């Protein structure tokens, strides 16, 4: 995917979140990579808005692993960067939410 030189990024990023722990096997939407105040949205921002159960509370134990292309990116990674470098040929950012095994 490319964007015009006069723009600083994509208007929307198409994504699909796959999850096995709910009755909805996936969530598919468009998400703006830049907030209204000009700040770049991160992977954590996307998950907080669309799938808050996927991320641990600030003081809580991590229950899920967030994977893209078999790697676990930091939640602070900008969505624009993820989309430019990790989108599939269909231009979607495919994100898997994998429950952590319990001991």
From TrEMBL:
<protein>
    <recommendedName>
        <fullName>Autophagy protein 5</fullName>
    </recommendedName>
</protein>
<keyword id="KW-0832">Ubl conjugation</keyword>
<dbReference type="GO" id="GO:0061908">
    <property type="term" value="C:phagophore"/>
</dbReference>
<feature type="domain" description="Autophagy protein ATG5 UblB">
    <location>
        <begin position="12"/>
        <end position="97"/>
    </location>
</feature>
<dbReference type="GO" id="GO:0000422">
    <property type="term" value="P:autophagy of mitochondrion"/>
</dbReference>
<dbReference type="InterPro" id="IPR048318">
    <property type="entry name" value="ATG5_UblB"/>
</dbReference>
<dbReference type="GO" id="GO:0006995">
    <property type="term" value="P:cellular response to nitrogen starvation"/>
</dbReference>
<dbReference type="GO" id="GO:0044233">
    <property type="term" value="C:mitochondria-associated endoplasmic reticulum membrane contact site"/>
</dbReference>
<dbReference type="GO" id="GO:0019776">
    <property type="term" value="F:Atg8-family ligase activity"/>
</dbReference>
<keyword id="KW-0072">Autophagy</keyword>
<comment type="function">
    <text>Involved in autophagic vesicle formation.</text>
</comment>
<dbReference type="GO" id="GO:0034045">
    <property type="term" value="C:phagophore assembly site membrane"/>
</dbReference>
<dbReference type="GO" id="GO:0034274">
    <property type="term" value="C:Atg12-Atg5-Atg16 complex"/>
</dbReference>
<keyword id="KW-0472">Membrane</keyword>
<dbReference type="GO" id="GO:0034727">
    <property type="term" value="P:piecemeal microautophagy of the nucleus"/>
</dbReference>
<comment type="similarity">
    <text>Belongs to the ATG5 family.</text>
</comment>
<dbReference type="Pfam" id="PF04106">
    <property type="entry name" value="ATG5_UblB"/>
</dbReference>
<dbReference type="GO" id="GO:0005776">
    <property type="term" value="C:autophagosome"/>
</dbReference>
<comment type="subunit">
    <text>Conjugated with ATG12.</text>
</comment>
<keyword id="KW-1017">Isopeptide bond</keyword>
<dbReference type="InterPro" id="IPR007239">
    <property type="entry name" value="Atg5"/>
</dbReference>
